[in-house]
């Protein structure tokens, strides 16, 4: 059986699909086969039938009608299809004039039908050439050209040929006409579909200036483009004002798109206003509007409003989706509202929703931060039972739960499971393992993990180095810690202020005063100024070592740099004096606190009692104790009165 495949090549159907049953081509080739790089376009084979011309795919017993044109336009369409093969410019123009001259008597419906069929068969470029020819030769009137232009622009839009659509629209002005309302609406819609909302808005302004009414559908497309491009609130409000000024009645689709656009712009208040207006018109927001509103409210930390929107969505019998569920789940887990999580999980079960990897990650992270290892493990097992693949983040959060529960061996089992499941450990996973080993004093294992990290090509960050340095400092291995600091900088990782604070603390408690001074200068030379933690460490270390002058100097330096000493700083110095029974000096610290506006707390008063006790000044110690009792009694009376 001989088969003519020419029309298949013309329709750009890949050769590997040539055995597809013929009946399916007319229904699905446009959506199934967009652009393929190996196409080769050849002219169609035309056959006259029933007063028309049909391109056929013949299999001997049946045929499929692909594109049907009026017989008169076939030569012109064929010529435009192979225009590049024709000789010089003059020869082309002569041939065009000859073909058009023979077609001037054709009625408008013929041209309209021809352009529609060309666009439907994804030959909008040919349609554009034909329209240009019709316009140049004045074959159709301006109103007809307006409609034909809209048809071709829409066809170009469906093939994502925005630049060709722009050129065709501009061509209307150049050749001697002016765009009509249909052409304007078509080009606005094309720009909006390509998410070029700024250009679409400019064209809408031009359209209104020309005295034409924009199409309500185009406003819908513009809002969709604004949402995708995250346009600002001012842009969306401007478009809404234009709609109101033109007196257009908003429908359900337009309301939902406005709500979605405002949510994407991060303005839930305006979205709520339009939702109220929509409901006042007896229109119902769709699931997308509720979902994006809930997400935006959660991002804005407005959990109560998000819960209200979620409850309203359920009351309207709208089926909840995973996006809305995850948004609320993120809000609850971030704020440790684990009791509310249970209701969400029940809603998911009722709706038949399968939790995603992201959902399980939120839950395991929340249980980990709350110190609920058993619940985190149970959720991890539920995830496995649901055949949801865990990622590196989930493993890392479960490792944190094991570490915080002082079950470091559980973290190691998880690492082995990761490798078994072909989940590659990332930087965060390695950091947790190094920190876990370091906190349990297992430095050899920590260094082995560090070596494995290098072997797998995972670059250590400042957290990695800080964990290693802190582990060595905790083990009083200061030379090794300083060596790691040097290696850290040699490998291109800049130490943080926290890095220096770790080493300063270790040097101080080991009475390495000279090394401390050198490290402080190095830190300052890198533009890292001491912070509250640094000064608290220095005051505490020098005070405990009975080097009160240096401790007081660092307290003064802290004030000079504009840093407000915290209660911890004062406590550190007062505690140093108290341990030595230096009551007068401790009292001076308290006076300085009062002068700086720092309120005395129970810890400070206890330190003062301790100082008087060590010095044998028991009368003063009991006086402070009685003062504490008076303060406590006064606070109790206030609490009782406030509850009445």
From TrEMBL:
Pentatricopeptide repeat-containing protein-mitochondrial domain residues: 349-452
Transmembrane feature ranges: none
Residue span(s) of domain PROP1-like PPR: 184-346
Keywords of the record: Repeat
One Pfam family per UniProt: PPR_2
PPR repeats: 180-214, 251-285, 286-320, 356-390, 391-425, 426-460, 461-495, 496-530, 531-565, 566-600
SUPFAM superfamilies named in the record: HCP-like
Alphabetized Gene3D superfamilies for the sequence: Tetratricopeptide repeat domain (1.25.40.10)
Entry keyword annotation includes Repeat: yes
This protein's name: Pentatricopeptide repeat-containing protein
Organism for this UniProt entry: Ceratodon purpureus (Fire moss)
